[in-house]
Amino acid sequence: MVIFIHNNIISNTLDYMLCGFLSLVLIFNFSYAQHLGAISGSIVDKETHQPIEGVNFIIINTARGAASDQNGSFVMNNIPVGSYTVQVSMIGYSGIVRPNVNINSNKLTQLNFYMEKSVIEGKAIFVSGGYFEKTQDAVVSNRTMDYEEIRSDPVGVYDIQMMMQALPGVVSESDQSNELIVRGGSAGENLFIMDNLE
Questions:
Q1: What is the pLDDT of residues 48-76, one digit of tens each?
Q2: CATH of region 35-122, choose from 2.60.40.1120, 2.40.50.140, 2.120.10.80, 1.25.40.10
Q3: From CA 11, how far away is CA 19, in angstroms rounded?
Q4: Separation of alpha carbons 57 and 79, rounded Å
Q5: Is this model's pTM higher than 0.70 or not?
Q6: Distances (CA, A) of 79 to 82, 88, 163, 185
Q7: Burial of 51 (0-12, 13-18, 19+ CB in 10 A)
C-alpha cells in the first residue's frame, strides 16, 4: 500500500508540473501575440486604376518585405507594434515612401498606394555601321593596256581577250569560248573596263 501511495504522489506531482508548464507557455504566447499587428493593402496604377502585380513592399530598417499579387494585394503578418516607414517600388513606376505607419496590437492596418508610371532614362547609346559596312572587293591583280600596246600586238588581231591569253596564268575556258580563266579562278571573276566602261 505504501508503494501505491508513493506512485500516486509522483503521478500527481508530474501532472501539476505539466499543467503549470503548459499554462506558462500559453500565457507567454498569448502575451507575445498581444504585441503583434499586421499590414494589408492594395497597389494600383494611378492612371488606369488597374492592380499592379509584383510591386515590392518593404518596411524600412527591417528585414521585412512582401510583393503584391495579381490583384495588387499584399499582406504582412506578425509585425511588432510600433511606428514604421514603408516603401513600395517597381521598375517603370515612381517609388512611394510613407512614414509614420502605426502598427497596433491585434489590429490590421490598411494601406492603399496609387503608383505613377515613370520613364527610365539611361545613358545615350551611339550606333555606327562601321563593323557591318561592305568592304570594297580587294583586287588581286590588274593589268592596264593602252592603245599603243594593243596596236603593237604581234598577232595583229586587236582582240583584247586574245592578247590576255598570252599573259602568264591566263587560259581560255574552252576552244569555242572567249571566256578567260585567270590563275585557276572562274570566268565570272574577271572584269574588263574599256574607256571607263565595264
A1: 999 999 999 999 988 888 999 999 999 99
A2: 2.60.40.1120
A3: 12
A4: 14
A5: no
A6: 9, 17, 98, 82
A7: middle
